Amino acid sequence: MSNLDQLLLNFKSLTENIDYLGVPDHNRGIFKKYSLSQVHCIDCIGNLEDTNVTKISEELNMTRGAISKITKKLLSEGLIKQYKKPDNKKEIFFELTDNGWEVYHAHRELHDISELEYMNIFKKFNDNEIEIIISFLKEMNNYFKEQIEEISKNEN
Questions:
Q1: Of 2, 62, 93, 113, which alpha carbon lies 20 to 30 A from 84's?
Q2: In terms of domain of life, where is this protein from (predicted)?
Q3: pLDDT tens column, 87-108
Q4: Residue 118: CB partners within 8 Å, gap ≥ 6?
Q5: pLDDT 10s digits, 47-59
Q6: Does the global pTM surpass 0.85?
Q7: Cα–Cα distance for residue pair 24/110, rounded to 1 Å
Q8: For residues 134 and 74, what is the distance between their CA atoms, to the nearest angstrom?
């Protein structure tokens, strides 16, 4: 098997493992009631100031229609609340409720644990190897971003 074939096989395996391991964490405990998109929307609202549908859709690479659906559900679940600014009565913004902050912090904790585990793996590589890995990941991320942008264009 060529190096390129091995790389493809291992990359596919990596993405499948990430998918497999990522979903169960979001189907336990506090996350049981919420989709991954809802949790990421909560995370986005917790991380950014003056979040609205447009800002969330850009941050999560999702359509405004999808974000509108998600925020309506989060509003009905009492995880977020909406507000308007005194100088802008037209635009609707979102902020987390106490229950929303609870989900936000639980999600952040999962990410913190993952990042520590990843750092332990990264430390096994020397600087040159890390530079090559960074280059590879940048190329893959650019490819995926282009695919997402193309899908977004076709949905609008």
A1: 62
A2: Bacteria
A3: 888 899 999 999 999 999 998 9
A4: none
A5: 999 999 999 998 9
A6: no
A7: 12
A8: 36
